[in-house]
Each structure stands twice: as C-alpha cells, then as structure tokens.
Design brief:
Elements (H helix, E strand, L loop, with lengths): L1 E5 L7 E4 L10 E10 L1 H8 L12 E2 L3 E9 L11 E4 L9 H4 L18 E2 L2 E2 L6 E4 L5 E3 L6 H4 L7 H9 L9 E5 L5 H11 L3 E6 L2 H9 L4 E4 L4 H8 L5 E6 L4 H9 L1 E9 L19 E4 L5 H12 L7 E4 L4 H9 L6 E4 L2
Parallel strand pairs: 7-8, 11-12, 11-14, 12-13, 14-15, 15-16, 17-18
Antiparallel strand pairs: 1-2, 1-4, 3-5, 3-9, 3-18, 5-6, 6-10
The structure holds zinc ion (2 copies).
C-alpha cells in the first residue's frame, strides 16, 4: 500500500510503498476513510533534531484518523469488519489511572504504551496511508449513524482538543458570561461552534485575518475583533469593562497569551491550547486577580464519544479541504503556506 512517511528528521515526508499491516491478537486494521493534516505535524517533520523526540524514524504521518474496520486480530470483540470508526489518537498504556479514565494523552506509564508519548502518526505508523494498524480495540470509537469517516477524522484532534479545553471551563461559561476564542483556524472555528452548542455564553472571536473573522461569524461568533493593539480595549468594551470569563488561545504565541491573560475577568480562565511556543513573564500582578492560566493537550476518549455525537447531530462540523493520498504531501505544503481553508483532510 501507499503511505506518506517521515523518512528522516528535518525532511519533507515521502509517499512510498509499504506492506499492508496484518492484525496480531487484540489489534485492529482500519481502512482509512480520512486523515487530517495537523499543524503539529509540521513541527514534527521540520523542527526536531534527531534524539529530541523519543521516537524512531521512519513512520507514517497522520494522527487524526477515521475509517472502516478492515480486519481484526484474535480476541477482538467490540468491533467487527466493516464498522465505521474514529481512532482515538493518544495511545497510552491502557492500565494506569489516567488511561483508565480515558485520558491516555496523559498516560503515567508511557514505557508500557505502544510508543512513548505518541500514537499513530506520532512515532508509530499513522493514517496518511491506505490502512492503519491500531494496537488495541479500546482506541476505536464507533461512529454514530450519519457521520462519515472523512468528516469524523479531523474531529479526533482539531475537535477533541478545543472540546476538552471548553468542557473543563464549562462552569465559568454561564449565560451571562463571555468566551473569547483567539485564532480562528483549524481548532478555533470548531471551538466557537462547541461553545455555542454546549453553553449559552456569548462568543468573541479574535484573528488578524479578515477571512478567518468572516468564518467566525459564519460559524456563530457573536462578535469579531481584529487581532491588533486595540484588541484588549475592544474585548473590554464588549464586556462592559469587566473582561472575558474564559479565553481560549488557539495560537499560543507571545502576543496571544498576553492578550488572553490581560483580557480575562477576575476569577476567569485563560487556556493556552495552541503550541505557538510563546512565553510571557508571570507575576502576582501580571494578570487580573485569580485568573487561572492553564494549558491543555488533546482530550480524553469519553470526550471523543460526546463530540462525535454532537457532530452526528449537526451541532458541530469541521470546515475542510480534501486531498488524495497522492497529493497528501501538497496538503502539508499548503498548510505551511497558510493556504488551506479549514482543515486539510486526506481521503485516499
Ligand atoms: Zn494534531
Ligand atoms: Zn497509561
């Protein structure tokens, strides 16, 4: 079969021929119906010197995957050939207390996971291929009726990551509160829909691109604010001078983290979701009183079940541009150049 593989660190991936996987006991092979191209893949392929990540090259890219069960190994009972499934992307040990709660993204026993701090497409072969080997059936979530794999694939990361961040701040998203989403890209445009679908809070979207602000309005933002020196004042004006109750920074650059924490209302949450690498100095007075500054990484398996249900009911969708496997390398180049509308999804 064909697969888009990272052959060596700090190189562009190559489309090569590899053997189709066969499942051993407990494993499942999924015929890929969709694989999302994520911004973090660009860091994986371009930024890391050999030895920085605990992973060996080569491996096939693609950590946002969905498809149909192609074959199952001995002992697999919860899924069968032909089932439409999404793949939960963080592959932990499955046994520690975090994994037991479904938070395999925070596995505390990574030495016993299939790969340290990764999964398919992150150290092991991922879904930018015709087939994907999944090491355990618990990592599959059956798709609800009405949800196609190509639609579900980007939800497993671009949807799950903001859903988790929103869910943990739900108690602060009351009907009279305001949520600010900074960065209306692959994650941000889903974040807006998720706040609207699961709470009655007002949403302000912030971005420096007009087409992103148009998309924000289209997917339900109540207000849009240009990302510039006046953004803080604009957020204050839209919140009667109080600041926002929850700010979700889907960028994570220095300027956006600074905006998120300074535009927060006392007792608010400022959550850094994007891995933009920005840093800001922290002190007692660097943000309003009792603002919680937090980071999140991905989400839990039970949250993915809820998210897929929301999507099947039409309450959230991922804007996407489709590429064939033959053009998957181009998808990453377009992503790098900022040319992709919504999420780039490879459909073989
Ligand atoms: Zn990702
Ligand atoms: Zn674990």
């Amino acid at each position: 079969m064909k697969a888009l593989r990272l052959i060596d660190w700090k190189t562009d991936p190559e489309l090569v021929e590899v053997p189709k996987p066969t499942p051993r006991p407990g494993e499942v092979v999924v015929k890929i119906g969709g694989a999302g191209a994520c911004h973090s893949d660009l860091h994986v392929m371009h930024d890391f010197e050999p030895g920085v990540m605990p992973w060996k090259v080569p491996f096939t890219l693609g950590h946002e995957n969905a498809g149909w069960v192609d074959s199952v190994g001995d002992g697999v009972t919860t899924v069968a050939e032909g089932d439409a499934v999404a793949v939960y992307g963080a592959w932990g040990c499955g046994k520690c207390s975090r994994c037991q709660r479904g938070f395999e993204n925070y596995c505390e026993n990574p030495g016993e996971a299939p790969v340290v701090s990764g999964g398919g497409g992150l150290g092991l072969d991922g879904g930018m291929a015709e087939y994907l080997l999944v090491p355990a059936e618990r990592l599959l979530v059956r798709l609800p009726d009405g949800l196609e794999p190509a639609t579900a694939a980007p939800l497993t990361d671009a949807g799950l990551t903001p859903y988790h961040a929103i869910r943990r701040s739900w108690s602060k998203m009351t009907p009279i509160s305001t949520v600010v989403v900074i960065g209306v890209g692959g994650l941000g445009h889903v974040a807006i829909q998720l706040v609207k679908a699961t709470t009655a809070a007002k949403v302000i979207a912030v971005d420096n691109r007009q087409d992103a602000l148009d998309l924000a309005t289209q997917v339900g933002a109540d207000h849009v604010v240009a990302s510039n020196d006046e953004a803080l004042g604009a957020i204050k004006d839209l919140t009667a001078g109080h600041g926002a109750d929850v700010l979700l920074d889907c960028v994570g650059a220095e300027a956006t983290i600074e905006l998120a924490r300074t535009a927060a209302r006392p007792l608010g949450d400022a959550t850094i979701i994007g891995i933009g690498g920005g840093t800001v100095p922290l002190s007692f007075f660097s943000q309003p009183y009792e603002v919680s500054i937090q980071t999140t990484y991905w989400g839990s398996r039970p949250e993915l079940v809820e998210l897929l249900d929301l999507a099947a009911r039409g309450l959230v969708h991922v804007e996407s541009t489709t590429y064939t496997l033959d053009h998957a390398a181009q998808a990453y180049r377009d992503l790098q150049d900022g040319k992709v509308h919504g999420r780039a999804v490879m459909v073989p």
